C-alpha cells in the first residue's frame, strides 16, 4: 500500500481508538453526556443492575476496544468496534434517538471498513472485488 493510504488508515485507527477510550472513560464521569439516559427502556428492563452501573461496564468495554485498536490487536479491535457500534445503534433506535443511531450505524460501517483495510495491509486476504483489486 502506498504511504498516502497508510497515513489515512492510521488516522482512522487513531481516531477510533482514542474516541472509544475517551467515551469509555467518560462513562465514569458523565462530562460529555448523561450516558444512562441513552439506555433504551427495553434494554433497561433486562438489566440486572442500574443503568449507571451498566454504563460503567460499557465504559470498560469501550476502553478495551480502544486499546485493542491502538496497540493490542488493531484488526480484531476494529471488528469489535464495528459490532459494538451496531449494537449501540440498535439500542439508540429503540430509545428513540434515531439521529444518533444513524450516526453510530455509519461509524460501525467505517470501523468495519477500517478492519478490512488493516487486514489487507497486514497480509490478510483483501476484501475487494476483482475489479477493485487493480486500484489497490
Describe the protein.
With 136 residues, the protein is mainly alpha-helical. It has one domain (3-133). It is built from six helices and no strands. It has helices at residues 3-26, 41-46, 51-72, 74-94, 98-121, 130-133. The longest helix has 24 residues, at 3-26. The protein is elongated and about 50 Å long. The chain starts with a helix and ends with a helix. The model is unreliable at 125-136 (pLDDT under 50).
Defining traits:
6 helices; elongated; mainly alpha
Outline type: elongated
SSE sequence, one letter per element: HHHHHH
Helix content: over 70%
Radius of gyration: 16 Å
How is the biggest beta sheet arranged?
A: none
Helix and strand arrangement:
Elements: H1 3-26, H2 41-46, H3 51-72, H4 74-94, H5 98-121, H6 130-133
Helix pairs in contact: 1-3, 1-5, 3-4, 4-5
Amino acid at each position: 500500500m502506498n504511504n498516502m493510504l497508510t497515513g489515512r488508515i492510521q488516522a482512522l485507527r487513531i481516531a477510533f481508538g482514542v474516541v472509544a477510550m475517551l467515551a469509555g472513560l467518560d462513562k465514569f464521569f458523565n462530562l460529555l453526556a448523561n450516558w444512562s439516559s441513552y439506555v433504551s427502556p427495553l434494554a433497561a428492563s433486562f438489566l440486572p443492575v442500574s443503568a449507571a452501573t451498566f454504563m460503567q461496564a460499557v465504559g470498560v468495554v469501550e476502553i478495551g476496544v480502544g486499546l485493542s485498536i491502538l496497540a493490542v490487536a488493531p484488526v480484531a479491535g476494529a471488528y469489535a468496534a464495528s459490532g459494538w457500534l451496531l449494537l449501540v445503534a440498535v439500542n439508540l433506535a429503540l430509545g428513540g434517538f434515531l439521529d444518533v443511531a444513524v450516526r453510530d450505524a455509519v461509524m460501525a460501517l467505517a470501523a468495519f471498513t477500517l478492519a478490512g483495510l488493516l487486514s489487507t495491509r497486514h497480509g490478510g486476504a483483501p476484501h475487494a472485488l476483482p475489479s477493485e483489486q487493480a486500484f489497490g
